[in-house]
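User: Hello! I'm new to structural biology and keep hearing that structure can be predicted from sequence alone. Could you demonstrate with Alpha/beta hydrolase? Please show me the input and the output so I can see what each looks like.

Assistant: Of course. The first part below is the input, the amino acid sequence of Alpha/beta hydrolase. The second part is the output, the predicted structure written as tokens.
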Amino acid sequence: MRSTAHSFRTPGGITLGVEHFGDETAPLVLLAGSVTMLAWPDALCEALARGGRHVVRYDLRDAGTSTTIDPDAPRYTLRDLAADAAALARGLDDRPAHLAGIGVSGMVAQLAVLDHPDAFSALTLVGTRSVAPGPVDPDLPDHDAAKMKKRFSLPKPDWSDRASVVKFAGIAAEVFDDDPAEARATAERIFDRTPGANDSVRIANHVGMVFARLDCGPRWRERLPEIAVPTLVVHGRRDPFFPVGNGEALAREIPDARLLVLEKASTAIPVAASDEVAEAMLAL
């Protein structure tokens, strides 16, 4: 399926890199990057488009082709990223959009629906949790300590060397039980989308560490019962970063949310699961 890449400028002057799939007059499904849009498999975007949706995936700030200034010292907040999602939804369609977030962009998506409820008609949350980066609530499972230690003890790649970065992505994926071949293919595409970037920008694109430096307050978990749109929570059974109990908690605390657990998945949506996830999203 042919897609088209564009950019979108928000009323606040932020440029967001976007990619369109399907009929642009169809109902909008907006996929927030984590942190780049390539967190969403092509196969999933295409399946949603075949299901009669206008699918737009986009890069968050300091990622991909979106506005990049200083990933080491972001001057925006989580709420600014939520406002970006609402501005994009309103700018692309005069009807409320189905918003989806994966990993850290799932936090953006929760807050966007809470703070801008008029902009959204449905919500999908994939592999995420209901609290910001940092100390987790005692009733939620935290990162798998052994996996995290192994992952962050890996030798750092030469961020300016494509082969080194791609090899690192595959090894890191193996540690987290994701598909290393899919991770390497995605890393190649991410690298090729950021030509001439410095190490900080490349790290932001491949690892997304910018979220560790964002102001993510105040809390929003206690507001989850305010979410009034149909919600799907998707989580990998093997996810060591945000263990599946985080998805189970989201599904309990968001009224009438549906939980879809992918038994063979970890932190990423496997290409093989794209049709299953798309079918569940379309059912909303």
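User: So the tokens describe the shape?

Assistant: Right, they're a compact way of writing down the 3D structure. Reading them back into a model, for example: The two ends are 23 Å apart (CA to CA).
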